[in-house]
Write a structure and sequence with these properties.
There is one protein chain. It is built from 13 helices and 14 strands. The protein has about 375 residues and is of the alpha+beta class. The chain has two domains: about 5-225, no CATH class; about 235-365, no CATH class. A hairpin with a 2-residue loop joins strand 13 (about 300-305) and strand 14 (about 305).
Length: about 375
């Protein structure tokens, strides 16, 4: 492993920590690459890759020391900006109201792929737009620093190229890295995208990139776009889903779907929540908590004593139609970024790109 490269990454992590950031990045834990706090570059998953497929995720040892050649794991960065569970308030028997005693963490996210960078932007638009912004998310996002990574080795279930979110990381990152392993050493090409990124880079030892190095990095990312494991069909997804609510294909999906909600839990853009009130055994203390919810839950659509979507068929249709169609009406674009997590972490291997392709094929046959 190139020592200069390790020293540079260590300096990056150390500088961020000195600036008061909690640095979050990929690391190996158990049988997966997960996101956790980093104290040094040694914690990054050097030499580890993953094999993915429908309902499949496996770590594998690589023959090199590349650090960011793994596709999306079971977590997304959403967990740090829009936590799966948080206290809203508490109260005592005399009615005293207490807001949660918490400080807004300052996160520096290291290793954000293009798909996940797009997901952070979509979450920002959803949760901070409109007349009632989520101030909790807003505070975390405003204090955020992002170090993105251009993808040069997409995974078997990745389809970000067909969703326009990768493999190159788009705007929004403070720094963007491209990992390169030429014959003369392991290096990162670094690009600053904001004033904060430029200030950070100026305080870290680095050399100016040559034209050949910049060109090689660009070529590696461009080539990755042609090596995606999946692709969303090139059809008008918005119209396709809106016009096929009564397709018999939904019944076929329902026969396989367990309605477990895994796809919504690993999705980097699913944002739905619910609240629950809890109390202790004495009844003298009560709390209200917010936690993630899923449109696959039976009572998610419970209204006035009845469930609007009681069948698995209707719940899967709701999820896919919202993600790829009605999201346009609400937020001006697709809710899918092509990370492939919902495919890898579906216990029965349902692949949304295949389901959409089948819907398109059926619709074409019907109108032929």
């Amino acid at each position: 492993m190139d020592q200069a490269m390790i020293d540079g990454l260590d300096e990056l992590v150390g500088t961020l920590r000195t600036d008061g950031y909690q640095v979050i990045g990929p690391t190996v834990s158990g049988a997966a690459i997960v996101l956790a706090e980093l104290r040094s570059a040694a914690q990054l998953p050097a030499g580890w890759g993953v094999e993915t497929g429908p309902g499949q995720y496996r770590l594998r040892r690589r023959e090199d020391d590349v650090m960011f050649a793994h596709s999306a794991g079971p977590q997304s960065w959403k967990a740090f900006l829009h936590p799966s569970r948080r206290k809203l308030w508490s109260t005592t028997a005399d009615g005293t109201f207490r807001a949660p005693d918490e400080e807004t963490p300052r996160y520096a996210l290291l290793g954000v792929r293009g798909c996940d960078l797009a997901a952070i932007t979509k979450l920002r638009d959803v949760l901070t737009g409109g007349s009632h912004p989520d101030k909790h998310f807003q505070a975390r996002h405003q204090s955020l620093l992002v170090v993105a990574v251009n993808c040069t080795e997409p995974g078997e279930v990745c389809f970000c190229a067909s969703m326009g979110t990768g493999p190159a990381a788009g705007p929004g990152a403070d720094l963007t890295l491209t990992e390169m392993t030429p014959t003369d050493g392991h290096r990162f090409l670094v690009e600053a995208g904001t004033d904060a990124g430029r200030d950070l880079l100026a305080r870290i030892g680095h050399d100016d990139a040559t034209a050949d190095e910049t060109g090689s990095a660009r070529t590696a990312v461009e080539q990755a776009a042609h090596r995606m494991g999946r692709a969303m069909p090139e059809v008008d997804l918005r119209s396709l889903l809106a016009g096929n609510r009564d397709s018999s294909h939904w019944e076929d999906v329902a026969e396989r779907c367990l309605t477990c909600g895994n796809c919504t839990m690993v999705c980097p853009t699913c944002f739905c929540t619910t609240t629950e009130d809890v109390t202790d055994l004495t009844g003298d203390h009560a709390e209200r908590w917010q936690h993630w919810s899923s449109c696959f839950e039976l009572d998610f659509s419970h209204v006035h004593g009845g469930d609007v979507r009681s069948s698995g068929e209707s719940r899967y249709r709701q999820w896919l139609t919202h993600k790829l169609s009605t999201w346009y009406d609400q937020f001006g674009g697709s809710g899918c970024v092509g990370c492939g997590r919902c495919i890898a972490w579906c216990p029965v291997g349902i692949d949304l790109t295949e389901e959409v392709a089948q819907l398109a094929s059926d619709a074409e046959a019907t109108h032929a």
